[in-house]
Amino acid sequence: MFKHYKNKMECKSFFSFSTFNFSLIHAFTLAEVLIVLVIIGVVAALTIPTVISNAQDAQFKSEWKKAYATFAAATQRMLSENDNIATIIDNDEDSMRLLYKPYLSLATDCPYGAVYGKCWHEEGGWQLADKSFPSYMQSGEEAVASYEGAGAVLADGTLVRYVTYGGCTGHGVDKCGYIMVDVNGFKKPNILGKDIYAIHLFTTKVTPFGTEGDGNENSCTTDGFGCSAEYLYK
């Protein structure tokens, strides 16, 4: 039960400062508060960029898997209507673009010679994973920096660049060409293995760059081509 006080003085004495001495409480000085804020700022500066970068990388990898699935499905539909790609592709540089066009949802279609700035980056507008500028896709293939190819922009904003090999004899095998995609559109970083990936087109299938036997298996940490397979199958 609550205690009954006889008078105001007795009540006052119960709540007196002698009962709860506020002078014993230690307040932070301004210097201490500033030190804590500086520490929080340093920790945030060190961790937040990493968190943002990891989240961005995860998003790029997810978009890459989606883009690859789109081209794999389009290729399968194409093959369901034809024996193999070699029977329907020719030496025309627009040939691969025209083959895929009916099977893709496009925002922009870029014929050969009208790709830069519309469906793909201008020369020097993208880099390899080691931050160098691309010169060759692979030994013996066309110079990336000077070979425009044909292209497209998918409905989701993914940039596409096609390079066709006449007769499907690229690298002495049944390779009909390759497809490059930038899953982040024209926005940065525009780096191979980050937001840019590559796909082989063979006569009966597509495979990501870095697939065993294509010479790019261990290149994810160098030029970045091998990341296409490494991230797809993780």
Give a concise summary.
By secondary structure, the chain is an alpha+beta fold. It is built from four helices and six strands. The protein starts with 7 loop residues before the first helix and ends with a helix.
Rg, alpha carbons: 31 Å
Structural class: alpha+beta
Inertia-based shape:
elongated
The percentage helix is 25-40%
Overview of the structural elements:
The chain has 234 residues and is α+β, with helices and mostly antiparallel strands. The chain has one domain. A six-stranded antiparallel sheet has the order 1-2-3-4-5-6. The radius of gyration is 31 Å and the shape is elongated. The termini are far apart. It contains four helices and six strands.
Question: What descriptive keywords fit this protein?
Answer:
alpha+beta
Layout: helices, strands, pairs:
Blueprint: H1 8-14, H2 30-80, H3 95-100, E1 106-110, E2 150-154, E3 159-164, E4 175-182, E5 196-202, E6 206-208, H4 227-232
Antiparallel strand pairs: 1-2, 2-3, 3-4, 4-5, 5-6
